[in-house]
Predict the structure.
Amino acid sequence: MIVNGKPYQSIWTDPSNDEVVMIINQHLLPFEFRVDEISSSAQVMEAIRTMKVRGAPLIGICGAFGLYMACLEARHKKDGEKYISEHAEMLKSARPTAVNLAWAVNRVMQKTAGVKDPEEKIRGARKEAIGMMEEDKESCFRIGQHGLELILEISRRKKGSPVNILTHCNAGWLACIDYGTATSPIYLAHDQGIKLHIWVDETRPRNQGARLTAWELGQHGVPHTVIVDNAGGHLMQKRLVDMVIVGSDRTTRTGDVANKIGTYLKALAAHDNDIPFYVALPSSSIDFSIRSGINEIRVEERDLSEVRNMEGSIRGDIYTVNIIPEKSPVSNFGFDITPARLVTGLITERGICGANEQEIIKLFPEH
Ligand code: MRU
């Protein structure tokens, strides 16, 4: 997507150095646009853990490059195989809820398993990571094409007046490689001249909506308004929302959706007001091995400072301030589970299906 008139993706390989990848440092957005170099598996781990890179598809691809870097580092180790498998486990545990991380790391492990020659292993890991990066772009573009049909239908019904879409967190191109999941149909529709307006949930505690989604949409010229997390229900009652589209960090084979904390409340409000609630996701975010979101998805609990503090900018400098009485306890669950019964449909790279096992498996019969 375009940043200051120039095309970017969220991660890319350095054309002048095979051992380096470049990322957009998401800590600093929207106050500063900075590209960081990453050249070790430890740096990948730190970037994922601290959320310099975040969003299920992107952390998956970063994890794949992290394993590639572990293969590079293993050249100088006595027991290279052990070093690589230990790093695979460490990478997978950096963020537990998004299934893409384990999926991507396992895929690189499987592709390079049994390759004895270290140089061949390195080449194989790099090829696989780059291949997955390209696949993710393609998947997100296809998600956009399928979701576009839903937006077109509403636009026709509203005789061309703006389609109001509510989204939560950042399921945009910054969370993937390009296009995004929830935002992909939005960008495609906007580029076709369809009138849209996006309600952007601020998404406390890290404010991915206010800081990242609003920034992305603004860069692309998509009309949007940032709202506090609790405003969605009111807007739905007032018929100011035509549809909701969110992303997912992990979806079960039965259609239960783990996504950023607060998603469930939006789904409940949408259900109560008869507003379609769609989840846009690549199949790499579907965990085909589990059935129950509530019982089988581990919800990440993040550092309490995320709740205690707020970050903002004054004249270009970023400051952190405390917003809670020091002695008050806080808790910080990163995600929640939206049960399948509240999901109108899943927008995947292969098409749109109901959030139920039968329809999911019909689209992905290999599972
Ligand atoms: O904690 P984050 O910022 O990594 O959470 C991201 C989300 O919840 C996104 O909405 C989800 O990953 C979908 S990403 C396309």
Remarks:
- The two ends are 32 Å apart (CA to CA).
- The domain at 146-363 is CATH 3.40.50.10470 (Rossmann fold).
- The pocket of MRU is lined by residues 54-57, 98, 169, 171, 175-176, 181, 208, 247-249, 259-260, 334 (CB under 6 Å).
- The first helix runs from residue 41 to 49.
